[in-house]
TrEMBL record:
Lineage, broadest ranks: Bacteria, Pseudomonadati, Pseudomonadota, Alphaproteobacteria, Rhodobacterales
Molecular function terms, GO-annotated: 4-hydroxybenzoate 3-monooxygenase activity; FAD binding
Domain FAD-binding: 2-342
Species assigned in the record: Silicimonas algicola
Name of the molecule in the record: p-hydroxybenzoate 3-monooxygenase
Any GO BP annotation: benzoate catabolic process
């Protein structure tokens, strides 16, 4: 098999990159480890920056999003005593969009099917070769046979546990990491959201988030110790804990119901540099992970794709390599700013086991400051709606 850009991973970054390249006449083949059903069943991100929405429109996959997604002009940050609204619209002129990653991925698969792109599912043992040569190749097993895909470039869109990043020699790769001593237990339920806008809550019992997918689909999270097992959390226990962490009036009006999905995700900040090695380019979670507190993971994947798709089109179509030569540097500049924001939001809203009273006072003072300073709120809003690219 032969193509221009081999894409490893059929998650949101791989699919969006492929769609944008195909529309510009660049050929791709996607190699995905899981089944399509499995990729579509993963409940993950829910908030899109305006830049990510613009990218989806540019890719021609935003018709359903434009009909069904919910624009949000603000969100709330709370603690025991305070409820601070961050008015994105007033402070930045922009909003964010509530539209699930599952929906984004579904729209992208549909568009790629129309495009006729080859997407191979259930591939295994992917290995990447000749990255320092004029052309490269990817070997993999599919339907019981070892196969070879020749290509000009390889896009590593295979998430944090993929093979692409590990293909960059250890001595050539720098990794920066912060692991947080807690996770998020998430629950999806067919109930109306408890509030019109998201609530990020800091409480003495730990963090909670009230989010949503639509007017009858709610997504909630509570901070839990990493040692907790999802099986040990009954729906009743989840709802009770969530209510203790949210403002009293919100908890009072909350509609509860059976969970459709429940899972625990650990929190981590991680960046691998550089994001390019010869003909290989890392995209999205393959290169970086943010703690979910700032809703940046999927949005960073979209901004990486923004830089990379234009660079690859120039390289394939006109032999202009200036874009691919500066991809890593440009993508990382934005990645680090989102890292900072996600880390800051995480520190501001979570309780750390064994922390002293000083840490809790710092969180309180940060929220107090936000409630009193429009400048502080604008800084948060500017980052939340997404820095420009
Ligand atoms: P992935 O989605 O991980 O996709 C990688 C794909 O590669 C997968 O389909 C995988 O099966 C495949 N793959 C892996 N290894 C191989 C291999 N060896 N060969 C072939 N294929 C392989 N982000 C936000 O922006 N906003 C949010 O609100 C938000 N909330 C989140 C909430 C939770 C609970 C979690 C867990 C994440 C959240 N994120 C959020 C982060 C977001 O989901 C990720 O950043 C996003 O999925 C990254 O997309 P990706 O395509 O780079 O990686
Ligand atoms: C969701 C997840 C997040 O990490 C976040 O910051 C906001 C919303 C969600 O899944 O809806």
């Amino acid at each position: 098999m032969k193509t221009e850009v081999a894409i490893i991973g059929g998650g949101p970054s791989g699919l969006l990159l492929s769609q944008l390249l195909n529309r510009a006449g660049v050929e791709t083949v996607i190699l995905e480890r899981s089944t399509r059903e499995h990729v579509l069943s993963r409940i993950r991100a829910g908030i899109l920056e305006f830049g990510a929405v613009r990218m989806l429109r540019e890719a021609g996959v935003a018709d359903r999003l434009d009909r069904e997604a919910i624009p949000h002009d603000g969100c709330f940050l709370t603690d025991e005593d305070l409820m601070v609204r961050i008015d994105f619209k007033k402070l930045t002129g922009q909003h964010v969009t509530v539209y699930g990653q599952t929906e984004v991925t579904q729209d992208l698969y549909k568009a790629q099917d129309v495009m006729g792109t080859t997407i191979l599912h259930e591939v295994s043992d992917v290995t990447i070769h000749d990255l320092d040569q004029a052309t490269s190749h990817v070997d993999f097993t599919h339907e019981g046979e070892r196969k070879r895909l020749d290509c000009l470039f390889v896009a590593g869109c295979d998430g944090f546990h993929g093979v692409s990043r590990k293909t960059i020699p250890e001595g050539k790769r720098r990794e920066h990491e912060r692991v947080y001593p807690f996770g998020w237990l998430g629950l999806l339920s067919e109930t109306p959201p408890c509030n019109d806008e998201l609530i990020y809550a800091n409480s003495p019992r730990g963090f909670a988030l009230a989010s949503m997918r639509n007017e009858n689909l709610s997504r909630y999270y509570v901070q839990v110790p990493l040692t907790d097992k999802v099986e040990a959390w009954s729906d009743d226990a989840f709802w009770a804990e969530l209510k203790r962490r949210l403002p009293f009036e919100t908890a009072e009006r909350m509609v509860t119901g059976p969970s459709m999905e429940k899972s625990i995700a650990p929190l981590r900040s991680f960046v691998a540099e550089p994001m390019r090695w010869g003909n290989l380019f890392l995209v999205g979670d393959a290169a970086h992970i943010v703690p979910p507190t700032g809703a940046k993971g999927l949005n960073l994947a979209a901004s990486d794709v923004h830089y990379l798709h234009a660079a690859l089109i120039d390289a394939v179509k006109s032999g202009d390599r200036s874009g691919i030569d500066t991809y890593s540097e440009r993508a990382l500049m934005r990645v680090w700013k989102a890292m900072r924001f996600s880390w800051q939001m995480t520190m501001m809203l979570h309780r750390f086991e064994g922390e002293d009273s000083f840490a809790a006072q710092m969180r309180k003072a940060t929220l107090q400051h936000l409630s009193q300073s429009e400048t502080a709120r604008r800084e948060l809003a500017e980052n939340y709606i997404g820095l420009p690219y």
